[in-house]
Design brief:
The chain is α/β, with parallel strands linked by helices and about 260 residues long. It has two domains: about 50 residues, no CATH class; about 190 residues, Vaccinia Virus protein VP39 (Rossmann fold), CATH 3.40.50. The chain is built from eight helices and ten strands. An eight-stranded mixed β-sheet has the order 3-2-1-4-5-10-8-9, sandwiched between helices. Strands 6-7 form a two-stranded antiparallel ribbon. Strand 8 and strand 9 form a beta hairpin. Helix 4 packs parallel to helix 5. The longest helix has 16 residues. The protein is globular, with a radius of gyration of 22 Å.
């Protein structure tokens, strides 16, 4: 699977798609001649060979589930101000922008202006150049924290980038605010420069040191959708014993006494 991912997403060579497309050639030619019998106008050959074998939509992707679930939560909660860090523009951000305003921070540029979206280019491994405390009451960072400090997106190399990222993001939240964080978990390791795989307990402890308390834990299991798991040591041990899962951590910012 790693080799296939490297070929398809990084080198632009998808052997699976190629072979699926090849088997569509005979059917394409048959359909061409059958259509041509009853159509006398101008025709160009523009074969779409792969689509015959594809599903109606991509619903087995963990991005599909995390973007949908967290956007639904934000819709239900109706926060005053929601801020996002590094999530997919063409997925989660677009979902949220369809029903409310959203402000986003990303280390990468975004040249397109999008209705209901406010953009700031920022590296969240560094403190933001304004008063952070009580900046928002709702925050998200989906499938992004694991990349902090690995240089994949032009960010500075920093082995502790994810720790600094959680600390700076936590400072944006008002007391009582909700933080939706998704990141890969499993046997702890760095797959350089793709991503970190975290021990879930490591994330929870790091969040706790930044005044965040875990209130819900969801596991995205591909085509099986999303599963809510118990907030227990046994659940953490089960997750860390596996190679990979995507977890959605839901934290609340503790109220100061």
């Amino acid at each position: 699977m790693k080799f296939y991912w490297l070929l398809s997403s990084q080198l632009g060579v998808d052997p699976l798609r190629f072979f699926h497309s090849l088997r569509g050639v005979p059917k394409y030619l048959i359909d061409w001649f059958n259509f041509r019998k009853n159509y006398k106008g101008k025709m160009h050959m523009t074969p779409c060979l792969f689509d015959r074998y594809a599903d109606a939509g991509v619903t087995k992707s963990e991005y599909f589930w995390q973007d949908l679930i967290v956007a639904q939560r934000i819709f239900e909660k109706g926060p005053v101000k929601h801020v996002d860090v590094g999530s997919r523009i063409d997925g989660f951000v677009a979902h949220v922008a369809s029903f409310r305003n959203i402000e986003i921070f990303d280390v990468r540029p975004m040249p397109t202006q999008i209705p209901r979206v406010t953009f700031q280019k920022a590296d969240l491994m560094q403190p933001l150049p304004f008063e952070q405390a009580t900046y928002c009451d709702s925050l998200s960072c989906l499938h992004a924290l694991e990349h902090f400090g690995l240089g994949r997106y032009g960010d500075p190399i920093d082995a502790l980038g994810y720790e600094k990222g959680i600390s700076n993001m936590a400072h944006l939240l008002k007391p009582g605010g909700i933080f939706y964080l998704s990141t890969p978990v499993g046997r702890p390791r760095v797959e350089f420069n793709a991503n970190h795989i975290f021990d879930p307990e490591q994330i929870v402890k790091l969040a706790k040191t930044n005044n965040l308390t875990l209130i819900e834990l969801l596991v995205v299991r591909g085509d099986k959708g999303v599963e809510k798991v118990e907030l227990s040591q046994a659940s953490f041990m089960d997750l860390v014993s596996q190679t990979y899962n995507l977890c959605i951590f839901v934290f609340i910012k503790n109220k100061t006494k």
